[in-house]
Amino acid sequence: NAGVTQTPKFRVLKTGQSMTLLCAQDMNHEYMYWYRQDPGMGLRLIHYSVGEGTTAKGEVPDGYNVSRLKKQNFLLGLESAAPSQTSVYFCASSLGGTDQPQHFGDGTRLSIL
Amino acid sequence: KNEVEQSPQNLTAQEGEFITINCSYSVGISALHWLQQHPGGGIVSLFMLSSGKKKHGRLIATINIQEKHSSLHITASHPRDSAVYICAVRYGGSTLGRLYFGRGTQLTVWP
């Protein structure tokens, strides 16, 4: 039982490049989330989804786009990467909303040069 | 202002000691989460509670709604408990997908 799987685990980009982070969950969870974690700060919500075909903005959505075409997958896109987007990105999922425990992926360490 | 404050920021203990990590928040909540982030970076949900007390093994989480405060206790601490412990809350009036996270408490347990 894999839980929540994030790919890739590490990536280095140049400013202006684009990329997509993939999150896949096999628990049939409705809710999925993308967070970023920066030194000295708590996890911050980028975007989230309450079900297949739906997405919503979180606390820090600028510079990111997301899609949830299939229930099990939640994609996070950076159209034109900036050094300020250097961070560790976590995907999470939960059966219901934030009154339910969240299951996290192992994170993606992204560096933008 | 929706803030989540954790204390202490860093905590060092000797193996076997009783550990307490605190979390306070500013307004009424509907749920509070305690998470553990391993040295390798992975994050695991430990507890989700809205009232009272929960226990799992050597871990105990309590919440006092009136005082807007929660504690995470670790009994008989062990070096493998070394991790960052994170508190997160869902405020009663917040949108469905939003948790507010504390900055974490770095716990180091020495043998």
Short description:
Chain A is mostly beta strands and 113 residues long. Chain A is built from no helices and eleven strands. With 111 residues, chain B is mainly beta.
Mean pLDDT of chain B: 91
Largest sheet of chain B: 6 strands, mixed
SSE string of chain A, helix = H, strand = E? EEEEEEEEEEE
**Distance N terminus to C terminus of chain A?**
36 Å
Uncertain residue ranges of chain A? none
What is the count of helical runs of chain B?
0
Radius of gyration of chain B: 14 Å
Shape of chain B: globular
Number of strands of chain A: 11
Structural class of chain B: mainly beta
**Helicity range of the residues of chain A?**
under 10%
Please write the string of helix (H) and strand (E) elements of chain B.
EEEEEEEEEEE
List the helices and strands and how they pair.
The complex is a heterodimer of chains A (113) and B (111).
Chain A: E1 4-7, E2 10-13, E3 19-25, E4 31-37, E5 44-49, E6 56-57, E7 64-67, E8 73-78, E9 87-94, E10 103-104, E11 108-112
Parallel strand pairs in A: 2-11
Antiparallel strand pairs in A: 1-3, 3-8, 4-5, 4-9, 5-6, 7-8, 9-10, 9-11
Chain B: E1 4-7, E2 10-14, E3 19-25, E4 29-37, E5 43-49, E6 52-56, E7 59-64, E8 69-74, E9 83-91, E10 100-101, E11 105-110
Parallel strand pairs in B: 2-11
Antiparallel strand pairs in B: 1-3, 3-8, 4-5, 4-9, 6-7, 7-8, 9-10, 9-11
Report on this model:
The complex is a heterodimer of chains A (113) and B (111). Chain A is mainly β and 113 residues long. Helices cover 0% and strands 49% of the residues of chain A. Chain A has no helices and eleven strands. In chain A, strands 2, 4, 5, 6, 9, 10 and 11 form a seven-stranded mixed beta sheet that branches. Chain A has a four-stranded antiparallel beta sheet with strand order 1-3-8-7, with no helix packed on it. In chain A, a hairpin with a 6-residue loop joins strand 5 and strand 6. In chain B, the strands form two sheets. In chain B, strands 2, 4, 5, 9, 10 and 11 form a six-stranded mixed beta sheet that branches. In chain B, strands 1-3-8-7-6 form a five-stranded antiparallel beta sheet, with no helix packed on it. Chain B is globular. Chain B is mainly β. Chain B has strands spanning 4-7, 10-14, 19-25, 29-37, 43-49, 52-56, 59-64, 69-74, 83-91, 100-101, 105-110.
